[in-house]
């Protein structure tokens, strides 16, 4: 009796210990969420701050923090208790991404017995067989009734899901907790596969002298997690990254608070941060668009530009061969407060539209801008002019020495439009250059560029002639 009693006591102790160990394993899902904040960067990166109310037993234990992004960067994870920071310490962290799928489930049952159900068409019934899965490497191998089958038709039925497989990516911590009160646990981590970009719509007025501009933010979330009722912030700027992401620097970028109808913009470090002034839900595998800015009556200017190339000035061309070249069309404006703007523009594509004579809006071109601060000029290449043509001909060429060249050029501009225009001729020179003679005044743009601004009346042509000497 004493022996039986001792055995019984040992069993009770083992069961009690197992229960006690089981009680120290806690789980937290998105249902426990108090707040979530997402900061999205231009370069396919996001910072998530997920705050949850978590009940933990005192002492050492294990916490499964579930419903995190599947693209999480584990080395960037940081967990802290907001209300009892001195009482909660993480001793060890694991990131479990051995998620459930067909191959992994079958891998766990290699050497074990499973059921296979197949429909018997001839007898109109289900056939159920028991099989031992011998291998799941490039196909299944089964042992059924002492025979080896290379594959077998039907549905594979497993008795249960192995305990070491999980359905969602999970952060697991071994912790030390000194209080029985609930923790407001803030978990922050970086994740890949979430990004944002800016797109703009520019509608020009009838004479191209002003425009209405609207900006949109597009967020693409493929991080493997949904962010419900999230505080959303966007970082515009090039945040440096190395092969191992610099967590400390990125954390600093994201701690700032962040003008537009919905976003509040502020400078932060060497970037700009845009803070959405309301909560929003960003679903997994979702593309979401949010209005960034609206501006009306922005003063614009249309510009016609004709560009040369450097190789013109050190070789002979056929004097009778006229080279037709396009005249490019640009729209430019100043990003200033006086021009109803003055907000830093994140990099993106600007698409331009204009109404035709029947009042229907038509697309007229697009261009990409880089991150642009306030009080800077934005210039957009729209396309090539249809009714403005340009021809270039070399009227004289001399190679004075092996390193000294002299050439003369005639550029003919024709304006078939109904109004007078000004065309800018931009000539890129090099070496030691000197304009010997010119029919029109020019200005020196920089050390190796000159520009002629030529007025061309409607339905007329203007010839610009100049002679230049180039020393190599």
TrEMBL record:
> Signal sequence span per UniProt?
1-20
Signal is among the record's keywords: yes
Q: Which residues form the DUF4139 domain?
A: 185-429
Q: Domain of life of the organism in this record? A: Bacteria
Stated name of the protein = DUF4139 domain-containing protein
Keywords on record: Signal
List the InterPro entries: DUF4139
Record has Signal as a keyword:
yes
């Amino acid at each position: 009796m004493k022996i039986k009693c001792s055995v019984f006591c040992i069993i009770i102790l083992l069961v009690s210990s197992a229960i006690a160990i089981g009680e120290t394993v806690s789980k937290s899902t998105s249902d426990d969420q108090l707040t979530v904040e997402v900061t999205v960067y231009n370069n396919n990166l996001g910072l998530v701050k997920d705050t949850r109310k978590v009940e933990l037993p005192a002492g050492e234990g294990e916490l499964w923090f579930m419903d995190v992004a599947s693209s999480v960067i584990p080395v960037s994870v940081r967990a802290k208790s907001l209300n009892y920071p001195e009482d909660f310490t993480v001793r060890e962290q694991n990131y479990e991404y051995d998620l459930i799928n067909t191959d992994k489930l079958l891998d766990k049952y290699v050497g074990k017995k499973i059921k296979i159900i197949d429909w018997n068409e001839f007898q109109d019934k289900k056939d159920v067989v028991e099989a031992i899965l011998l291998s799941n490497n490039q196909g299944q191998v089964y042992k059924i009734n002492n025979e080896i089958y290379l594959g077998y038709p039907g549905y594979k039925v497993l008795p249960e899901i192995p305990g070491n497989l999980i359905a969602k990516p999970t952060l697991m911590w071994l912790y030390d907790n000194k209080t029985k009160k609930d923790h407001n646990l803030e978990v922050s981590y970086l994740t890949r596969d979430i990004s944002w970009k800016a797109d703009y719509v520019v509608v020009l007025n009838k004479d191209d002298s002003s425009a209405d501009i609207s900006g949109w933010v597009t967020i693409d979330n493929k991080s493997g997690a949904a962010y419900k009722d999230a505080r959303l912030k966007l970082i515009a700027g090039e945040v440096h990254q190395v092969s191992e992401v610099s967590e400390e620097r990125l954390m600093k970028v994201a701690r700032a608070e962040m003008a537009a109808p919905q976003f509040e913009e502020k400078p932060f470090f060497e970037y700009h941060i845009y803070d959405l002034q309301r909560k929003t839900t960003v679903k997994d595998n979702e593309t979401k668009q949010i209005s960034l800015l609206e501006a009306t009556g922005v003063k614009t200017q249309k510009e016609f530009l004709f560009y040369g190339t450097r190789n013109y000035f050190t070789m002979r061309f056929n004097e009778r061969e006229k080279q037709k070249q396009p005249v490019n069309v640009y729209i430019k404006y100043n990003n200033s407060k006086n021009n109803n703007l003055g907000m830093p523009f994140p990099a993106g594509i600007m698409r331009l539209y204009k109404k035709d004579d029947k009042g229907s809006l038509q697309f007229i071109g697009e261009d990409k801008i880089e991150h642009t601060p306030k009080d800077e000029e934005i210039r957009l290449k729209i396309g090539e002019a249809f009714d403005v043509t340009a021809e270039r001909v070399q009227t004289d060429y001399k190679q004075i020495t092996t390193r000294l060249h002299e050439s003369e050029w005639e550029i003919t501009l024709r304006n078939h439009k109904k109004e007078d225009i000004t065309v800018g001729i931009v000539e890129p020179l090099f070496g030691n250059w000197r304009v010997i003679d010119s029919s029109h005044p020019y200005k020196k743009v920089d050390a190796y560029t000159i520009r002629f601004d030529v007025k061309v009346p409607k339905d007329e042509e203007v010839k610009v002639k100049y002679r230049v000497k180039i020393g190599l």
